[in-house]
Design a protein that fits this description.
CATH class of the largest domain: Alpha Beta
Radius of gyration: 19 Å
Mean pLDDT: 95
Shape: globular
Largest sheet: 5 strands, mixed
CATH topology of the largest domain: Nucleotidyltransferase, domain 5
Number of helices: 9
Helix content: 25-40%
Strand content: 15-25%
CATH superfamily of the largest domain: ATPase, nucleotide binding domain
Number of strands: 12
Order of helices and strands: EEEHEEEHEHEEEHHHEHHEH
Low-confidence stretches: none
Distance between the termini: 17 Å
Amino acid sequence: MGPVNVGLDIGATKTLGVVVDAEGEILAGVREATEPGSDGVVRTAARVVEALRAATGEPLPGTVGVGIPGLVDHERGVVKHAVNLGLDGDWFELGDLLGDRLGVRVVVENDVNAATLGAVAMSGEDDLVYVSIGTGLAAGLVLEGRLRRGDHGAAGEVGHIPVDPNGVLCECGQRGCLETLASGSALAAAWPSPGQVPPAQALFAAAQGGDPKAIALRDEFAAGVASAVRVLALAVDPRTVVLGGGVAQLGEQLRVAVASALLDQAASSPFLASLDLAGRLRVVPSSYPVAAVGAALLGR
């Protein structure tokens, strides 16, 4: 086996690990339920790496890259504000703790930034914005081949741009943020879905079936995502915009809805129309573990 890298995507419900070769091909993948709490997160991550070692029959001695939600100090390998993971203290020393357990170097990155690197590998484009539409709304930026984290690690926090002063109170403390319109949690609140069908899928299916309320909600949601795309595109003018996150399981339906909203927004503006934002959109295939692949690339 040639040089390979290990990447972990640690989320509140699951931890996904992959082994990726020099060409970016996925050689093995393992998924485990994430145990909450500091010890649980480290224990789960270590278990996934051991399972990858067993699956490949290799010791996998190289660097392990980790993508995790929250504010990450990439240099120190520490994380805080990791929502729903129940980590201890202010800065949690994930890199050192997991590295000691596995006997390898561990590098840590915010999960959206890791996914952005995965989107670069998937698309072959090195100038892109990745828009993650999950529980929240955030973006990652790779500009001319360089990941932009920002001076305070807040580059791409487009979900917290307020667009409606009379809107819903956001968890960040501001009112009417884009995230309150264009996120998985916003969809779940607007269109609760009983049973196993995710709210986004249920809403889009109802809209497809002609339900007027569902059509209005879908269009409002798509317009919110389009507004995030427009803000990002006007700020940094990326070559490609990739839609990802849990809601991107909708696939082509999502791309079409957001592209349509972008075309509507550009209809009265020759300037916006000339930028062809709708034509720059792509969506992550539902089977592609973009954050885990991006985390593996951190090891390089």
